[in-house]
Amino acid sequence: MLHHRPILAYISHNSATTLLNLMVILSTMSTIVHISCNFEATCDKEKSPHPQEIIEFPSVLVNSMTGQMEDFFQTYVRPTCNQHLTDFCKELTGIQQIQVDKGVLLGDALLLHDRWLEEKGIKQTNFAVVTWSNWDCRVMLESECRFKRIPKPTYFNRWINLKVPFHEVFNGARCNLREAVQMAGLAWEGRAHCGLDDAKNTARLLTYMMHRGFKFYITNSLVWQYPEHPFMMHQIMDRYSGPILHHHGSRRSLAPIFQLHPQMDPSKDPCLYCYCGVKSSKRVVRQPGPKHGTFFFGCGNWTSTRGALCPYFEWAT
């Protein structure tokens, strides 16, 4: 189900059990900032299910010239590996089983979100994704798309980790999102661990930093993993053809806020991350045979005594 209503509130913080994807897309041409916020994921109190799967996909649009939140996208996502939410997950996120049962698959959620950006005119501009931490783009979305072989839009492969500019503005302060919002003198609004509310709070923090004149830059990137499967807009099914636009007025303007970090080269960030969320280890095949001496990437938590903790595997090229 898609929900589109006026944007009044904000976003939340990241945790190991509920993946909060806080992503912002900044545009200097159409002056739109898109915050794709808080991928809430399957989780449990003691040990999260493997693999974790996204169950809420929210995004918020912010005008980068005015700092105003203008629209949002939200859909619930149906998990396919661990289809039943734990009681802990339902209590923590507020997401109920019936909502994910009626949700869309992750591939369809990505298509719907991409079409929404297209209809808003964002894809024709210079935009970037913004997160609170690297977990959301580097680990959660990337690992699930790789695990399920789902094509992923390339704009999710480079992003602004809002923690980095926050540390610069607040002299190296290290805190979670909620604490960061409070340090900025803002009141937290909405329900904790609700992806959309978390996203809106992140948007408020971003707006605060905009008004302080901070110049944002790309902080991290990934190598696109599915070049043979371009992300096609025409794959969206007819049942998703309803209107999904909503506009709001703007207020005072600010200077453009997007630029590349002068020391950052996206083409030189080849790091891969396993399903555990840690940097994958590069190893070599030592057994005799046709693959002897060939390098591959595997679970970053692998040891010679216990083996791998996740099934991640990729041949090195």
From TrEMBL:
Keyword Zinc: yes
Gene Ontology MF terms: 3'-5'-RNA exonuclease activity; nucleic acid binding; zinc ion binding
Keyword Nuclease found: yes
Residue ranges annotated for the GRF-type domain, each copy included: 274-317
Origin organism lineage: Eukaryota, Viridiplantae, Streptophyta, Embryophyta, Tracheophyta
Protein name listed in UniProt: GRF-type domain-containing protein
CDD domains: ERI-1_3'hExo_like
Cleaved signal peptide residues: none
